[in-house]
Amino acid sequence: MCSPQFRQAMTMPQDAPSPQYPREFADGYPVETPRQAGVSEYMAKNPHVSGMAMGGGENGSRPSDPRTIVVNHNNPMMYLPENRRGLQRIEAIRHKMGETNYNPSFQITPEMQAYRAESYKPTDPYSHDDLAFKQSIVSRAMVGDLPGPLRRSVAPAANQFQQQFFPTNRLSP
Length: 173
Known about the structure:
single chain, alpha+beta, four-stranded mixed beta sheet
């Protein structure tokens, strides 16, 4: 015996619209799956990558592509909701930095350079792009994902960016 809902679904035309699920957003930016963003193969081959900002010219996207956040479900750290939320916040901050052409004014210290060398592979943009690296450590400081001494050294830049662009949304723990 079929339920009334099943019978109704069976009588719908083949080109009926698929059900719409609520779209997830992180600090105003939509969150997409790797498949939706067209990066499934890359994410599968790079499970160490937690996720990325896509669109607006980021990570090989066209500048005209809408800005989105992609979480890599192949990364075991992303199984924990708090880790996913942290990544989403970091990528939302990075999108805002891109939109505003944010260029932190601090100099990269020897301690920052040591962190850079131990944290990023030589093929990562952060290992050779000073602006991307500085933006990365500011965004990580804003969500508490940076070692204490480094976090303190970029705290003025992180606090200023947060107050300017996320004044009602306390991002850091």
